[in-house]
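Structure in, sequence out. Go:
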C-alpha cells in the first residue's frame, strides 16, 4: 500500500472519530443546576446515551448539581466548567460501588473515559458520615461506617483514563481509588479532604502505566498509596500542604 493511501486512511479515521465525539450540555438531559434537585438519574441517562452514540463530553456549566452515584461509561468524558460544582447527596442510600467500595463516580471495565475541567466535586464528607452514623444507630444500616463511606472516584479494570485539572473536595471515604487500571493520567488536580479522619488522597492497586503530575494534596491521611502490584508509576511535581514532594507509599 502506498504512503499516500496510508496517510489518507489515517486522516479519514481521525476525522470520523472527531465527528463522532460530540459535546453535550447536561441541561439537555434535564439536569438541574440549582443544587436542590437530585440529578442522579438524569446524569446517568446522559452518560448512557453518549456512550451508546459514539462517545463525547457531557458538559456542566456554572451551577450546583446534586447527585448520588454515577457510572461512567466507555468513550465518555465529564467536563466541569469553572463554576460548576458536583455536590454529593448526604443520603447513604444513593451510593453504590465496585469491589466493595462505594463512590460518587464509579467505572468498571470501561475504556477511554475521563473527568476534566476547572470545576469542583464536593463530597460533603462530614454530612454524609453524620447520616451514615444516624442510620447505623437506628439499626437501618447493616454496614460499618467505613464500609458505607463513599469515595469520590473508584475505577476498576478500566483503561485510557484522563483525570485533569478539577478540584476534589471533602470525601467521606478515601478520595480516589484505582484497581487494575491501565494507562491512567492524573494531572493538575487539587485534592483537599480533611473533614473526615483517615481519608487518603489516592490509592493504586494492580495498575500499569500511571502518570501523576502537578497534583496538590491536603488530606487527613496518606496522600498517595500504592501496592507492589502496581507498575510503571511515575510521579512528577506532586506536593502536599507542607510543600513536600511526594512519592508512592505502600
Amino acid at each position: 500500500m502506498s504512503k499516500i493511501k496510508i496517510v489518507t486512511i489515517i486522516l479519514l479515521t481521525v476525522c470520523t472519530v472527531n465527528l463522532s465525539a460530540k459535546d453535550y450540555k447536561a441541561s439537555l438531559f434535564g439536569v438541574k443546576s440549582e443544587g436542590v434537585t437530585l440529578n442522579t438519574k438524569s446524569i446517568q441517562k446522559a452518560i448512557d446515551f453518549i456512550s451508546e452514540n459514539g462517545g463525547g463530553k457531557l458538559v456542566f456549566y456554572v451551577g450546583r448539581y446534586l447527585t448520588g452515584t454515577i457510572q461512567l461509561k466507555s468513550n465518555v468524558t465529564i467536563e466541569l466548567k469553572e463554576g460548576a460544582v458536583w455536590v454529593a447527596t448526604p443520603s447513604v442510600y444513593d451510593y453504590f460501588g465496585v469491589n466493595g467500595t462505594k463512590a460518587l463516580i464509579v467505572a468498571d471495565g470501561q475504556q477511554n473515559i475521563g473527568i476534566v475541567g476547572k470545576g469542583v466535586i464536593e463530597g460533603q464528607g462530614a454530612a454524609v458520615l453524620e447520616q451514615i452514623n444516624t442510620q447505623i444507630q437506628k439499626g437501618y444500616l447493616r454496614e460499618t461506617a467505613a464500609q458505607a463511606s463513599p469515595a469520590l472516584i473508584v475505577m476498576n479494570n478500566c483503561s485510557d483514563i484522563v483525570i485533569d485539572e478539577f478540584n476534589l473536595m471533602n470525601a467521606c471515604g478515601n478520595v480516589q481509588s484505582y484497581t487494575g487500571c491501565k494507562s491512567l493520567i492524573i494531572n493538575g488536580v487539587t485534592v483537599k479532604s480533611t473533614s473526615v479522619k483517615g481519608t487518603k488522597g489516592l490509592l493504586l492497586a494492580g495498575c500499569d502505566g500511571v502518570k501523576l503530575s502537578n497534583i496538590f494534596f491536603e488530606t487527613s491521611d496518606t496522600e498517595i498509596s500504592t501496592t507492589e502490584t502496581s507498575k510503571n508509576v511515575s510521579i512528577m511535581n506532586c506536593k502536599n500542604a507542607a510543600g513536600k514532594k511526594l512519592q508512592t507509599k505502600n
